[in-house]
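User: Could you go from structure to sequence for me? I need the amino acid at each position, not a summary. Structure tokens:
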């Protein structure tokens, strides 16, 4: 039922003053907030990105959904495969790069120019992570 309610909200235009709650700084290592669960990009066959901006191999994903930051291949805010214009060839790297705090101006510019067809989708996202998932899944910008 919760999923169907959320799907219906994609069909409704929310108010134009909808603001994304930007997370200014993530750092699992020295965060004062104890992270017990992470959302992640789920779909990658080899790589996943968690909501803290870490990219890891699927085998290095912890049971709580977070990447194991101690794994040698885990990296945060990785923009490998991403061009200066924001286009990336690997979805998980796109999400990780998008989560970088200094990308907020680029995301705001993208949202201001988002096609009308995507208006409902991008106003339905609730936070920075959801915005990055949606942007990287639907846009080549």
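Assistant: Here is the amino acid at each position, in order:
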């Amino acid at each position: 039922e919760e999923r169907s309610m959320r799907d219906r909200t994609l069909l409704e235009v929310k108010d134009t003053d909808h603001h994304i709650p930007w997370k200014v700084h993530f750092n699992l290592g020295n965060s004062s907030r104890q992270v017990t669960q992470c959302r992640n990009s789920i779909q990658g066959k080899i790589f996943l990105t968690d909501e803290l901006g870490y990219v890891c191999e699927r085998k290095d994903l912890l049971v709580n959904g977070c990447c194991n930051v101690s794994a040698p291949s885990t990296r945060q805010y990785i923009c490998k495969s991403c061009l200066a214009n924001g286009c990336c060839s690997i979805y998980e790297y796109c999400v990780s790069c998008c989560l970088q705090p200094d990308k907020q101006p680029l995301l705001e510019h993208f949202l201001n120019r988002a096609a009308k067809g995507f208006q409902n989708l991008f106003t339905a996202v609730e936070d920075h992570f959801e915005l990055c998932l949606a942007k990287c899944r639907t846009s080549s910008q």
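One structural detail worth keeping in mind: The two ends are 33 Å apart (CA to CA).
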